[in-house]
């Protein structure tokens, strides 16, 4: 699906570099933004007839690499400032949303998890993200802030994989983003914990210097940062910057 | 103590009654595709019968639909056409395999296998792999392997077919000796009349799955009853109705015989008994024939005539004949054998 | 054999095909910083992941041989109804994305799965997030390679040798052990090697079913994937190590058993 999207994007980019002013805004966005940005994209298209918004959702580090390799993107929305910094071409990134960790437990909370302290319980099955990926780094920060030595059974390669383990009931708890808990719907229950405030993820967004369609790219960024944009993001579980 | 079988397998069109006494060698002779191998596989337990039965000593081996004893529980030994020696084992292990499978301890099995290898004259090859043997040696290993388990029934499928002519003569003589010594019942299938005559106590001729003639080899060779057997034993075979010494053939020609008969009879005579001429002779048993084919053999020329009769002439005689025109064929009454 | 000029229509795609397979490996080797190689190789995590990879791949291969050879025998020789369908089912893990295979394993052998639930309540055994789980995931993905290879060898072998054994009084089990198996040994060895190689490189089903925990379920491919997130150079070193080990093992096996 992703490859198909990319192909479409490349074809569109190829076409649009001709005489007419470009009608497509190409947005590279972190996977966690999928639901919120899809909604915002549709609304933006309705508000600007004739303009289309094309998305490429993937892990932020993969997107940063693609942009550096010359992928024709107009806008980059990253899940972490570090990935934004990797892209030398980003013009004045601004934080447009924040995401924070939440404890995800399977429906019915079979492990009777109440807070971060349960993560030190050897008898529970616990999933964390691997330290190498953003949710793992955030989890490490939060656990350190709480002074807890977690006893995880698995270190998942990304947040969706950790959530899958919760969804299937294979683990009693995992540390994931609040937005992921929201997206998972009724199968997963979220439990807030105070230390989450110590490990908040900033989501920066920027128009790219080589943007083929910088005018409408700027308009899309403004729309994301508008009150309507904030409302949609809040619906998805993000908090305001 | 008799092996008593009626073998019916529809797929091969096989319908073969068979009895074999202890010590007897029954040869099932027939052309390729007659159902010989199917019959052997049914006896071995590799193919269930569809109808009929196989019984030995009052013990039922196969009687559809109730009983089927699989191969490994029958006391049979089989020499397959291409021997099917186990290539990854030594010759000795091949021969010891059946004994080991039936529970003989390893050393005893090897000792017995060695005895058998010596008996068939290839004890010195015991350590070799079957791949390193000549055709004749492999045949002997196959025989030793089949005999080593002391089976009640020995089955041989074209045991000499894979050998060249020179080896064949020697191996055939040895095989005949081993079969004479074997106390059980032997069924050997072949399409080779020489093997059949040399090895069999009794022949069962099958064509298209059906028995066409049975009897001692001499009897079958002298008095063939089908074109196939007549051709195998090198005789011309005709059928007709006898009235005294006159036989009216199915083709309308009449022949005069020495012995007097009546009713439906066979008339057989060797191809060498016919002579061919351009001019009608005054001899009896002369008829006008057309040449339908010519075959050159080693020292004779075989001429096929239009009524299914063949004549063997010397090349010199043939040179004097004009084969494109009808010729007068003559056969002397004394050369004609008649039998019911 | 007839010698002479090889036809261009075959040589050109053959060379392109070879280049396509080899160039990425060359690229990998070219980008390796060899000066760091020894220190990285000797680091605890690499040793641990490598050891785990070799142990799990070998155990998975044993599982595949023990279960897969009889399965191949049944497919090649057994008179079972719906054999075509069974054969098709056996090859499913070949086309199934390994991640989906991992999810499927979780659904059946996981805590809430019908089989996994029984294992847990009867024996107190739980497979996910354990080394045993890694072996299960690798065996699931690698078994078809063995089954297909052995079944092919069995179908090519002359079944009449087995009939000869039967007439000598051998039971089917003895026949299988002493006649059938030795005659298809090259196929079994080739299948085992393929199976081991596939298990060694297994990633998707392993990380999905067994998770990722250093020393317990983090095999080399998992370590490579996670290293790529932050430290591509480390990932390259790990890959080269995996490559070297598998090439060495396969080459030695090939010389010894397959003879080509």
Structure at a glance:
Chain B has 340 residues and is an alpha+beta fold. Helix content of chain B is 26%, strand content 35%. In chain B, the strands form five sheets. Chain B has a six-stranded mixed sheet, sandwiched between helices. Chain B has a five-stranded antiparallel sheet with strand order 2-1-4-5-6, covered by helices on one side. A three-stranded antiparallel sheet of chain B has the order 12-13-20.
Which helices and strands appear, and what pairs or packs with what?
The complex is a heterotrimer of chains A (241), B (340) and C (260).
Chain A: H1 2-16, E1 24-30, H2 34-47, E2 52-58, H3 60-68, E3 75-77, H4 81-86, E4 90-99, E5 101-106, E6 126-129, H5 134-146, E7 154-156, H6 159-167, E8 173-177, H7 178-184, E9 188-191, E10 201-208, H8 214-225, H9 227-235
Parallel strand pairs in A: 1-2, 1-3, 6-7, 6-8
Antiparallel strand pairs in A: 3-10, 4-10, 5-8, 5-9
Chain B: E1 3-9, E2 14-20, E3 25-29, H1 36-44, E4 51-56, E5 59-63, E6 67-68, E7 76-79, H2 91-101, H3 106-119, H4 135-148, E8 153-157, H5 165-181, E9 185-190, H6 193-199, E10 202-207, E11 210-215, H7 217-222, H8 227-233, E12 236-249, E13 254-269, E14 274-277, E15 286-289, E16 291-296, E17 301-305, E18 310-313, H9 315-319, E19 327-331, E20 337-339
Parallel strand pairs in B: 3-9, 3-10, 7-8, 8-9
Antiparallel strand pairs in B: 1-2, 1-4, 4-5, 5-6, 10-11, 12-13, 13-20, 14-19, 15-19, 16-17, 17-18
Chain C: H1 8-30, H2 37-42, H3 44-77, H4 83-90, H5 92-95, H6 98-109, H7 114-123, H8 131-156, H9 160-167, H10 172-183, H11 185-201, H12 204-209, H13 220-230, H14 232-258
Helix pairs in contact in C: 3-8, 3-11, 6-7, 8-11, 9-10, 11-14, 13-14
């Amino acid at each position: 699906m992703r490859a198909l999207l990319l192909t479409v994007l490349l074809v569109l980019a190829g076409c649009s570099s001709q005489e007419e002013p470009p009608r497509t805004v190409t947005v590279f966005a972190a996977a966690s933004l999928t639901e919120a940005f899809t909604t915002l994209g549709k609304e933006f298209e309705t508000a600007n007839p004739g303009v289309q918004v094309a998305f490429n959702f993937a892990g932020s580090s993969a997107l940063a690499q693609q942009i550096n390799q010359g992928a024709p993107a107009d806008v980059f929305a990253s899940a972490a400032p570090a990935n934004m910094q990797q892209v030398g071409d980003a013009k004045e990134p601004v934080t447009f949303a924040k995401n924070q960790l939440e404890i995800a437990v399977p429906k019915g909370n079979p492990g009777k998890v109440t807070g971060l302290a349960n993560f030190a319980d050897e008898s529970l099955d616990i999933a964390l993200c691997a330290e190498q990926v953003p949710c793992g780094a955030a989890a490490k920060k939060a656990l350190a802030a709480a002074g807890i030595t977690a006893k995880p059974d698995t270190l998942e390669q990304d947040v969706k994989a950790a959530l899958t383990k919760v969804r299937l009931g294979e683990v009693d708890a995992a540390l994931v983003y609040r937005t992921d808990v929201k997206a998972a719907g009724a199968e997963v229950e979220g439990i807030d914990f105070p230390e989450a405030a110590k490990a908040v993820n900033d989501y920066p967004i920027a128009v790219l210097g080589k943007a083929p369609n910088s005018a409408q790219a700027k308009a899309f960024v403004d729309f994301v940062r508008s009150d309507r944009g904030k409302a949609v993001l809040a619906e998805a579980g993000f908090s305001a910057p | 103590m008799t092996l008593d079988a009626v073998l019916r397998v529809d797929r091969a069109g096989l319908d073969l009654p068979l009895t074999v006494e202890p010590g007897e060698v029954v040869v099932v002779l027939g052309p390729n595709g007659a159902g010989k191998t199917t019959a052997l596989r049914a006896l071995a337990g590799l193919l269930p019968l569809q109808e009929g039965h196989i019984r030995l000593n009052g013990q039922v081996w196969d009687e559809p639909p109730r009983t089927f004893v699989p191969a490994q529980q029958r006391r049979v030994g089989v020499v397959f056409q291409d021997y099917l020696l186990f290539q990854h084992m030594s010759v000795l292990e091949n021969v010891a395999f059946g004994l080991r499978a039936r529970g003989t301890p390893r050393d005893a099995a090897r000792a017995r296998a060695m005895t058998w290898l010596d008996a068939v004259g290839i004890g010195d090859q015991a350590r070799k792999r079957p791949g390193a043997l000549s055709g004749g040696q492999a045949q002997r290993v196959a025989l030793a392997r089949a005999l080593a388990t002391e089976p009640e029934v020995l089955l041989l499928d074209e045991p000499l077919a894979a050998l060249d002519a020179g080896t064949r003569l020697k191996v055939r003589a040895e095989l005949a000796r081993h079969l004479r010594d074997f106390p059980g019942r032997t069924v050997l299938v072949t399409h080779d009349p020489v093997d059949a005559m040399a090895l069999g106590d009794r022949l069962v001729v099958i064509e298209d799955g059906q028995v066409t003639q049975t009897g001692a080899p001499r009897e079958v060779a002298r008095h063939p009853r089908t074109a196939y057997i007549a051709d195998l034993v090198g005789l011309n075979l005709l059928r007709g109705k006898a009235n005294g010494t006159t036989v009216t053939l199915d083709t309308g020609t009449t022949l005069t015989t020495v012995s007097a008969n009546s009713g439906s009879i066979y008339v057989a005579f060797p191809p060498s008994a016919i002579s061919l001429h351009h001019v009608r002779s005054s001899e009896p048993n002369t008829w006008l024939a057309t040449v339908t084919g010519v075959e050159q053999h080693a020292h004779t020329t075989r001429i096929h005539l239009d009524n299914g009769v063949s004549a063997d002439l010397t090349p010199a005689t043939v040179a004097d004949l004009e084969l494109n025109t009808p010729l007068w064929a003559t056969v002397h009454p004394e050369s004609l054998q008649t039998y019911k | 054999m007839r010698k002479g000029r090889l036809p261009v229509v075959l040589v050109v795609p053959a060379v392109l095909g070879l280049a396509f397979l080899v160039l990425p490996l060359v690229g990998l080797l070219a980008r390796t910083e060899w000066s760091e190689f020894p220190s990285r190789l000797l680091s605890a995590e690499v040793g641990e992941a490598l050891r785990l990879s070799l142990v799990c791949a070998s155990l998975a291969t044993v599982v595949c041989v023990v279960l897969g050879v009889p399965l191949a025998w049944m497919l090649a020789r057994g008179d079972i109804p719906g054999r075509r369908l069974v054969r098709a089912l056996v090859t499913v893990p070949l086309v199934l994305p390994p991640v989906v295979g991992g999810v499927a394993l979780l659904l059946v052998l996981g805590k809430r799965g019908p089989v996994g639930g029984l294992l847990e309540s009867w024996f107190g055994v739980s497979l996910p997030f354990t080394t045993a789980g890694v072996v299960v995931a690798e065996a699931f993905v690698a078994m078809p390679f063995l089954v297909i290879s052995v079944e092919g060898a069995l179908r090519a072998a002359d079944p009449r040798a087995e009939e000869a054994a039967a007439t000598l009084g051998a039971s089917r089990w003895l026949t299988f052990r002493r006649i059938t198996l030795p005659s298809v040994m090259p196929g079994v060895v080739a299948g085992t090697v393929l199976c081991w190689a596939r298990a060694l490189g297994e990633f998707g089903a392993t990380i999905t079913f067994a998770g990722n925990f250093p020393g317990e379920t983090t095999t080399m491919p998992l370590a490579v994937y996670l290293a790529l997130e932050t430290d591509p150079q480390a990932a390259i070193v790990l890959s080269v190590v995996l490559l070297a080990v598998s090439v060495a093992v396969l080459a030695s096996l090939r010389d010894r058993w397959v003879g080509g």
